[in-house]
Amino acid sequence: MFPYPSGTLHLGHLRVYTISDVLARFKHLQGYDVLHPIGWDAFGLPAENAAIERGQHPEKWTLKNIETMKQQMMAMGGWWDWSREFRTCDPAFYKHTQAIFLRLHERGLAYQAESLVNFDPVDKTVLANEQVDANGCSWRSGAKVEKVMLKQWFLKIRQFQDQLLDDLDVLAENKHWPERVLAMQRNWLGRSEGVKFCFSVERFDEDKSTFGPMDSISVMTTRPDTLFAVMYVALSPNHPFVRAAAKTDAALRDFLQRAQHLPPDSKEGYELEGVYAINPADDIMGYHDFPQRNGRVPVYVAPYVLDYGYGAVMGVPAHDSRDHAFWRANSEEPFIHPLITQHRGYEPGYFLPLEPDYADDEADTEKGFLSTEIPGYHDLSSDDAAEKIIGDLQKQNKVAERVVNWRLRDWLISRQRYWGTPIPIIHCGSCGPVPVPEQDLPVELPDLPDSYFKGKTGNPLAEDVEWKKTTCPSCGSPAERETDTMDTFMDSSWYFFRFLDAKNRDAPVDARLVNPGMPVEIYLGGVEHAILHLLYARFISKFFASTEWWPNGQRTAKGEPFKKLITQGMVHGKTYSDPKTGRFLRPDEVQVTKDTVRIKESGLEPKMTFEKMSKSKYNGVDPGTTIAKYGADVTRAHMLFQAPVSDVLEWDEKSIIGVERWLTRVIRLSTGSFLSTSVWETLDSHLTLDQTLVEILASLKENNIPTTTPPPTTQSAPSLIPSLPQPDRALWSKLQQTIASVTKSYAETYSLNTIVSDLMTLTNLISDTSPASEFTPYLQYHATTHLLRMLAPIAPATAEEGWELLRAKKNRVQTAKHDSIFAAGFPKAELDILPQLNSTQPCVVQVDGKKRFEVEIGRPGELRREEMEAFLLGELGGTEVGREWLERGKGKIWRIAGEGEEGEGKGEGGLPRGWKMIVVRGGRIVNFVSPRKG
After folding, report:
1. pLDDT tens, 315-351?
2. Where is each Leucyl-tRNA synthetase editing domain found (predicted)?
3. May I ask the CATH class of domain 11-90+490-566?
4. pLDDT digits (tens, 9 = 90+) for 113-126
5. What is the CATH number of domain 93-160+411-487?
6. 11-90+490-566 with 93-160+411-487: one CATH topology?
7. CA-CA distance, 870 to 502, in Å (whole number)?
8. Is the dihedral of CA 643, 649, 650, 653 positive or negative?
C-alpha cells in the first residue's frame, strides 16, 4: 500500500486497504512468505497548497497527516510490514529517485526541450498530457488548462511504446488485468496504421505574410479510399502554420485564446482566409475526368484536431461523423457529395448529395465501393481503391506512404513547485545542462521557514538565490541548479521495487532481492490510475529490466511490474437532496426514523441517491466512527459483503447489524457448547487439525468411542461413511463445498462478497445441526475450526477470539499447539469424499428425448448395463412421479406406446415391447425410446 497522506482515511481508503489485507492474510495462511508493506507517497501539490493556505511548511503538514493516518490504519485491524515503511519526501528515498533520473539521462532517455505545454493557472505548474481530463481541465485543481511555451524536462517513454503495447497481451492472459484497464492503455498509446498524404498550399492574397519555408500540409488517414471526398483540411491550434499565421492575424489570435477553454470535441473553427490546400488526388485526376472532385479546399483551425501525429486532418464530411459535424457548423456550402456506396455500381443519379436539416444528412462511415462518378476507380472496393490510389500517387512521385502513428507523447516531468524531488541538473553558461555527480546526491530541498509559504505563488526554488548558487561539476565555473522538481508520479513509478530493499543506502535496490521478489503478485488500485501511475510504472519497470537493478526482469516477466491487477470500485454515500430545489442537505437538516425520512424544515420527503462521497454533498462517512461503533471486523466484513470488489459500493449502515449478529453467532459457536467434557477429552487425545473424514471416524472407532457401527480396520474405515446419518453427511459435505468455494474466491475470482455469504450459511448449518449420532459433535468441532480459519482473513480479531475460546475450553486440546489462528494454516477441501457423502443424485427422465420429469434417486455405484437398468427402474418406480409413468399396466408410458400391450418386465414396472432405455452420466439422465423412434 502506498497512500497519499491527505490527513484522514475515508471509506475508499478503508475498502482498498481491507481488500489488500484480506488477500495478504489468506496467502499467509496458505503458507506463502507474504510481503505486505506500507509506505507514503508524500510529495505533491495538496501539501504545498495547504502550506500556502496555512503558512506552514509542507513537510510539517505531511508528517502530521502520516501520523494521524497511521493510527487510523492500525485501528482498522490491518496487517502491514511497518519495518519497510518509507516516505518519498525523505532525502534517503528521493536520493534514489534522482539516481534513476541520472541513469535515464545517461541513456539519452531524459532530455530538456522547449515545448508548448499544459499549464494549470490555479496550481501554477505544468501538467503531463495524462493529467488533463477529457474536458481540458487539470486532474487535480479542475481548472481549465492553458497552453504556454516553456523549456521542460521530458522522459522518452515513446522509446518503449512498442513494448508497452505488445506486452498488454501478456497482462491479458488468464484475465490477470481487467479488460477495461487494458483498453484504456491501448487507447492512450494510440497506435494506428494509415497512409500519409501531402496537401500543397496556395495563398492568393500576396499582401499578407507567407508561412515561411513550409509549402505543404502532411496528414495521416486510416481511410485513404476517401481522398476524393475531401472538402477541407483542419489544423491543430498548435500547428506551425497556425502559429505563423497568428503573428499577423489578430482575429486568429483571439480565436486561439478562446480555443484554450473549448472542450476537446468542440466544433468551432476558424477559416484561414485566402489559404487553400490542393488535394493530391489532383495529380491523378483532372477537372474534366471528375467534375465533382474537390481539388482546392479551404483550411481551418479546429480545436478537435489533436497535436499528435501531424496535427492535421483531411476533412471528409460525407464519410466521417466528426468531420460532418464540423463542416455543418462552419461552412455555408449546403451539399455534401458522398463518393462511397454500400452497393457496387450505383449511378450518380441514384447517389444523391446530403442536404442540411434532412433526416438522411449524416455521414456514411462504413467501407464500401467507390462511386461510378470516379473514372478509373469506380466499383472498386474501399480496400482495393486505397491500394490503387497509393500506387498511382507514387507513380507520380507524390507522397503516399504507409505510416504508423502513436498518440503517446513523451512524459513531461517538470513541475514548477517546491514540494517534489529536485531534478539533479546544474546549468552552466559554458557546459550547458550538467548532471549532478551521483556521489553528491541527494540534491536536497532548501529548508524554508513556515512564514515563507503563506500566500506564496509560483516556484519557491526559482526565487531562492542561495540555494540555486553552485559550481559546475564539469568546469568549476559558477552555475545554477535546476529549479523544477519532478512529477510526483516519478516517485510512485518505482516505489514497489524499494519495498524489497528499503534500507539500501547505496542503490535504489539490489538485484539479489529484486530478482526473486518481482514482479508484484497482486496489485490493487482504482481504475483512475490506468493511464497515469500504471502506465508510468510499466515504463520505469521496463527500464529497470534493462539495468543491473532488475537483470532478470525481461526474461521472467517481460519487464512488467504487476502480475495481477485488481481495480476496486468507488464507495458512494447516501445523499439527500431537496426534491424542489435540488440542494444537497446536511445530515442535521434531515430527520431519519425507522420507517421515514423527512426534511425538518418543510416536512417533505427528500430525494435519496447514492453518489461519490464529497464535502459538498454532505455524504461522507468517517470510517473511524463506524469502527468505534461496530468494531473493525464488523466494518470490514460489511464492506466486503455489500458489493463485488470491482463494483461501486453503496455504503448503507442499515444492513450492518446483520453482519454484527453473524460474527456474534460465530463467537457463541466457538465456545463449543455442543461439546461435552468427554468429547473435549477425546479431541485432546486423538484428533488433530485437517484430518480427513475417514481419519476422524477411524480414530474415534479405534479409541472405543461408542457408535452404532462396527469397529473398522484401516481398509474398512471408508465403509463408515455411508452409515453416517444424513445430517452428519450434509454438514461435512457442505463444509467441503464451502472450503472449495471460499478458496477459489480468495485465490482466483476475488469475489470476497460471496465468501461472507458462504461463511454465513456454513455458520448457520453448524449451529443448527442437531446431534444425529455420536460423531456429530466431533464433526461440528472440526467444521468450526475450519470456519474460523476461513474467516480469519476477513475478520481477524473475531477469528482469533474464537480460536482462543476453543483453546481455552480445555488447555490441552490440539488448538493449543497454535498460539495464533494464522499459524494454523488454511483448510483444504476434501472433495473426493463428496460422492460418498451424497447418497442421492438428480435423475432427468425423458421419453423420446423430451423431458417428462425430474426426481431424486439413490446413487447407483459401479454397475453393468443390465444391473444399471434394473436399479434405475426400481429407483424410479419407488417414487410417486415414477409410478405415475412406469407402473405396470397403468403408467403413462403405455399410452405413449399406443399399443395397449405390456412389455416384458425388466424390473419393477417393466417396459413396453420394443422400447429401449438409454442411460447417460451414471443415471443422471434416462431416456426411454419408443419403437417408432428407435
Report:
1. 999 999 999 999 999 998 888 888 898 888 776 555 5
2. 186-331
3. alpha beta
4. 988 788 888 877 78
5. 3.40.50.620
6. yes
7. 72
8. positive
